[in-house]
What does this fold into?
Amino acid sequence: MLKNYKLIIAYDGSNYGGWQVQPNSTSIQELMQKAIETIVRDTITLIGSGRTDAGVHAIGQVAHFKIEKELDLKKFSHSLNGILPIDIRVLHVEQVPLDFHSQRSAKSKIYHYHIHNHPVQNPFKRHYSLHIRDKIDISLLQQAASLFVGKHDFTSFANESHQGCAAKNPVRNILRLDVVQDGDDIRLEFEADGFLYKMVRNIVGTLLEVIKGRRSLDDIPRLLAARDRTQAGQAAPAHALFLHKVKY
It folds into this structure.
């Protein structure tokens, strides 16, 4: 009888072309699928909750695969982490109902974007946060972030995917976009019912233009209404972005 297994995965995306299998670079999905097939000695299809771009990290990526074999979950998890590169780790494995789908069953996803705001870059944070020297006006950043919350057409903040087609429905509902300050560190917490290709990084890029005085708060509603990617800010660097959690 077919069985469905759910995995929670953490990875440092620095050395990979992203989650999704692609022809010209190594992906997390590819390595994980091969490792699983080595252990179960069968062909499987590993489906993730969504792709993360090259250089983006994950603390709570979710994936599932189906197979007829009954797995010893503890042994399977231990073996899988023994095969995978050290920058990819399976945090949890469980058997779930057959109708569970890591992508279609998701209710919301949470991404965190990390900023280190100090005149001097902390060398231990350089790989996982964006360094901004000038003091950030937190109140202004919060005001700008709040303008993205709610259901909007995010065409202006979505790139064409590398597969050559834009999302059929560019409307997404951002449930919250919180600005969390902890000393010199600032974390932008995005939670939405879904995200378009590079949407988080493009929004962060525009927020950075606002706090640097290159755009006004009034520009944000105008950009949303324009539905034109060329008018919004450049994508913020990938290395500071984490897929934090997927809610079901």
